[in-house]
From TrEMBL:
Domain of life: Bacteria
Record's keyword annotation contains Metal-binding: no
Protein name (Swiss-Prot/TrEMBL): Ribonucleoside hydrolase RihC
EC number: 3.2.2.-
Classification via SUPFAM superfamilies: Nucleoside hydrolase
Organism: Paenibacillus polygoni
Keywords of the record: Glycosidase, Hydrolase
Listed transmembrane segments: none
Molecular-function GO terms, alphabetical: hydrolase activity, acting on glycosyl bonds
Gene: rihC
Boundaries of every Inosine/uridine-preferring nucleoside hydrolase domain copy: 4-285
Pfam families: IU_nuc_hydro
Lineage, top ranks: Bacteria, Bacillati, Bacillota, Bacilli, Bacillales
Amino acid sequence: KIPIIIDTDPGIDDAAAIGLAFHRDELDVKLITTVAGNVDITNITANALKLVSFFDQDVPVARGMETPLLKPYEGSCVHGETGMDGYDFPEPTQEIIKLHAVEAIRSLLEESEEKITIVPIGPLTNIAVLLLMYPHVKHKIERIVLMGGSLSGGNMNGPAEFNMWADPHAAKIVLESDVEVVMIGLDVTLKALIGEKELAQCQNKSAEMFNAIFHHYRDGDMDHGVVMHDSCAIAYLTKPELFTIERRHIQVITEGPASGMTMEKFEEETTNMNVAVGIDSEAFQVWFLETLHRMK
Ligand code: BDR
Ligand code: CA
């Protein structure tokens, strides 16, 4: 099994990604860390706890950074007020652990005998702070498989994707660290859609919950399907053959009107990461439903 840490801001598509990760035999979710992003850190952390309880998991949750490194916190407008509106989750049975997210990741990495993959599906603030404060743990990180960025235009200001836009300075630190990065960006995630007719193929409580919260995502277009950005990072870990991956050199713009834009550097013959440039959308839906069928 691949040991992973999910760093997240649930978030409607984060909720799906977390549920899927819990139900893939290839993965062992060791820790969930929260970061301010789609909504504020209090709602985000409450949502992460609700998801762990909903899926009957015993995975520790640690609360992380409540603001980006330099810019002021600004949430996303497409995840509703609480980030997971529309479903009445039972009271969580678990509380957050005492350690801050950054300390929880450090301690897990230090104590682990095997390398661990970090899967950030929100802004990169926690991961940047970790790499700055504790560079000695880098060699315990197998790689960072992140949802974020784009080579083909953004979903915030024109060119920037939300997770990069929300904390571009953190993104720069992560992208320029010497840790292996796989970037799963909008180029593929916008083609990973799940809607009413897909969810209707599955009659369990999880499908019901997803159906309820997905209706609150952006314009809630459940006929066309809503975008499963974060689930693509989980899909990539368990079935990389769903994606076309290319080696590229990507940098992130931190200032000005294009801040958060991930830009390709062509002038040098160097590369710094693997980037997902293609996805088999139908096979993704099959993978999603097959995993959903395993849930309660
Ligand atoms: C990313 O931004 C968030 O709104 C989603 O959860 C996803 O992580 C997509 O741009
Ligand atoms: Ca997210």
